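Dear colleagues,

For the upcoming journal club I promised to circulate an example of a predicted protein-ligand complex. I picked one with flavin-adenine dinucleotide because it came up in last month's discussion. The inputs are reproduced below in full, followed by the predicted structure.
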Amino acid sequence: MRKPRVVILGAGYGGLITITRLQKQISVDEAEITLVNRNDYHYETTWLHEASAGTLHHDRARYQIKDIIDNNRVKFVKDTVVSIDKEAKKVVLENGEVEYDYLVISLGAHPETFGIKGLKEFAFGITSIDSARQLREHLEYQFATYNMEAEKKDERLTIVVGGAGFTGIEFLGELGNRIPELCKEYDIDFKKVRILCVEAAPTALPGFDPELVDYAVNHLQKKGVEFMIGTAIKECIEDGIIVAKGEELETIKAGTVVWAAGVRGNSVVEEAGFENMRGRVKVDGYLRAPGHDEVFIIGDCSLIINEEINRPYPPTAQIAMQQGETCAKNLAVAIRGRGEMGTFTPDIKGSVASLGEDDAVGVVFGKKLVGTKASFMKKMIDNRALYMVGGPSLVLKKGKFNIL
Ligand code: FAD
Ligand code: NAD
């Protein structure tokens, strides 16, 4: 009898936890496992703000997939998923096709642009190693070019960050460290630089503890960040943005615009025809797509409702990794046709936002933390993610030990 074919799409947090758990739970005779990922490396999405600002080399934020998976049990295919034909149970890749009996979709998020004109063309994103390298180089180019021009254009040194959610705030924290370094390296007076965060909501970090929001905003303001709160980006143009505060429109010239104003599920999910909300599929308790018991969807492509407030949980690595554990268990049950599947309930331990190298704000196990304690905790969380996937050796190779 043919072995069931399990195909896992995406080697991010959700995909790698699923694979590392599944390869231990089932034997080679029980299933044929294939992992498909665009790159032959995994990157820590949660470290991309550092790689994008240039405070951490991008190689520190990635590692080879072959060093993590059991290559005797898992076939790795380096390719890009183009589409999913859920009726024919096959996945179309840029360079071929794979058929499945069980599918795991863990392809992560895409930026949510809300259809705002010009963002796709002119704004940078914090989405991958490629985008991080491009943004880091662009920032450096702006500083390197400034003194070369006969007529100096100060707007070249204006950096706009759209969105003061966790991603925007963490990126601003890194800029707070990186920009003074760039000024020194390229003989530029820091006063010429403008770092501007534009946030549509009435506060930065909407929904987060107000005291911690104040701490974060004050910290970033001291580092030179200017906030435009209650102001929405309406359009991105070649040399800046157009914002709206109430009825009034304003054009702000900027050499760099970074869009960090939210995410939606991977477009492959929407295009495959699963019922979805902004690319995220409301999965059942066992993490399966409605009407498709053979398709598991986890991480940023899935939608889990927080029953207490009747709203979706924000997509996080924390949830993606927990889902990976349940998904592996449920796949093993499905493959064997016996046992009981586990239902998924997020166990939210807290959240911490870094504010550069040695500061942060967060709530962990219900306790508020700021400053070096919070920063220590953030590094522990980053190291824990490495440990969960690759054990102590991965922590030793890639871990953050610059702990105060
Ligand atoms: P990902 O980990 O993003 O992995 C998706 C994988 O799929 C990637 O390897 C990608 O290359 C691959 N892929 C995508 N499309 C294709 C395709 N078409 N074909 C083949 N492969 C493809 N969450 C936290 O809990 N804590 C944090 O501190 C935190 N910090 C963050 C900081 C930043 C800057 C950002 C942007 C996000 C942060 N998040 C954090 C959110 C967290 O990163 C995501 O929720 C998490 O990465 C989701 O995991 P995932 O497995 O769904 O996707
Ligand atoms: P987000 O949705 O959390 O925040 C986006 C922000 O952009 C919001 O504050 C929103 O009001 C603002 N915004 C939207 N449209 C705008 C516009 N036109 N102009 C100006 N502002 C606009 O998105 P995110 O920060 O990218 O985070 C994505 C997910 O990743 C979230 O679930 C978040 O919790 C998670 N994350 C977690 C961490 C962490 O735990 N340290 C870090 C980064 C991201």
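Two points we might discuss: The chain has two domains: 5-38+79-111+264-348, 113-261+350-404. The mean pLDDT is 97.

See you all on Thursday,
B. R.
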